[in-house]
Amino acid sequence: MPNFNLKDEVFESAAAQFPTPFTLYDEQGIRENARKLNRAFAWCPSFREYFAVKALPNPSILRIMKEEGCGLDCSSATELTLARVCGFSGDEVILSANAMPPEEFAQARALGAFINLDDITDIDLLAKNGGIPETICLRYNPGGHFSIGNTIMGNPGEAKYGMTDGQLRQALRCLSAMGATSFGLHAFLSSNTTDDSYYPALARTLFELGRDLAAETGMRFAFVDLSGGIGIPYRPEDKPTDIMAVGEGVRKVYEEIFPEGGVGIKTELGRWMTGPFGWLVTRAVHEKKIYRDYIGVDACAVHLMRPAMYGAYHHITVCGKRDLPADRLYDITGSLCENNDKFAIQRPLPEIALGDLLVIHDTGAHGTAMGYNYNGRLRGAEVLRQADGTFRLIRRAEKPEDYFATLDVDPAAKELGLE
């Protein structure tokens, strides 16, 4: 269920220091989650989590990850730059290629990062932009549906990611001829699942495939990258993932297929690592009664796109009113000129008054990171609740001059305050 570890007084205290809307992160919760993941896979000496930077690209959070022994999963030049300035290099970084500009391969190779190739055509690009490393990772797409028992977990055949079985074999032969001596396998076959059997089933697929490819090519099978896909319980009635059971399930499969060990395990969790430890804090600023009751807040889809983009559910509480009856139906809306700019639709909540502080839960991943500037709305601040209970601003709110900054080529630049 949504994370209620923080009391309303924490959000009220933060809102007394920082103007709403802002996203609040809990340092202690993030650290404890990273440690829990490491315990779950402690049986594999070479295990490492590579936090998915796209989920929460803030240097303060990335430094926490480094302190907890994690690496970073990067998908762009900008994310690689964040990794470098936060002190990550070498085998602490993975670049997941996906229609990758050639210069980003070169940047990753200069950093010493692992390269995870998405397509067989990437081989020549990499060779010309940084060169082929001794150890290379390939992304696998089995096609069709990915099922556990009778349950379809995902539809890889509809996904743009990864290589077919035949392409993997061709790619490894080519890479071996170009100097690569070992390989890893990566796959992302399900999204936001809390089914504890997902990782073990995915691990079996990759372990068996890697074992067979190693025997066929003579290359060393170095590691499996289970990617992300482990979800969080956004709804109060949802069951959370038991990460210890997940780790144990992967261990059993591993020891069955590789009784002598020798193959590493990597993960690239984002949502599971930080999602429950972020909250979008916003105030009720407008009330409208027509065919429905609407509460307008000072946040909008600029600050959290998931409900507008996916129809995603995020739990909402009203500070000081958690224990009151949820006897009113509201649409909770932002100010964008789009009717899908709604954080909740016909949501039962306690009666809301103007000025009330609303907390939108589970925004610690793919929240601020997905922000944009439609309608000229500006993205909000990010605040870290540190382990000692104090607050620290880790990203200021955008200002109008930030929005106008790329217009410095326009004749009106001086009037916009850019000269």
What does this structure look like?
29% of the residues lie in helices and 23% in strands. The chain is α/β, with parallel strands linked by helices and 419 residues long. It folds into 2 domains: 27-275, Alanine racemase (TIM Barrel); 276-407, Lyase, Ornithine Decarboxylase, Chain A, domain 1, CATH 2.40.37.10. Strands 1, 12, 13, 14, 15, 16, 17, 18 and 19 form a 9-stranded mixed β-sheet that branches. Strands 2-3-4-5-6-9-10-11 form an 8-stranded parallel beta barrel, surrounded by 6 helices. The protein has a two-stranded antiparallel sheet with strand order 7-8. Helix 2 packs parallel to helix 9 and helix 8 (198-217) packs parallel to helix 9 (243-257).
Offer a few descriptive terms.
2 domains, eight-stranded parallel beta barrel, alpha/beta, Lyase, Ornithine Decarboxylase, Chain A, domain 1, TIM Barrel, 12 helices, nine-stranded mixed sheet, 419 residues
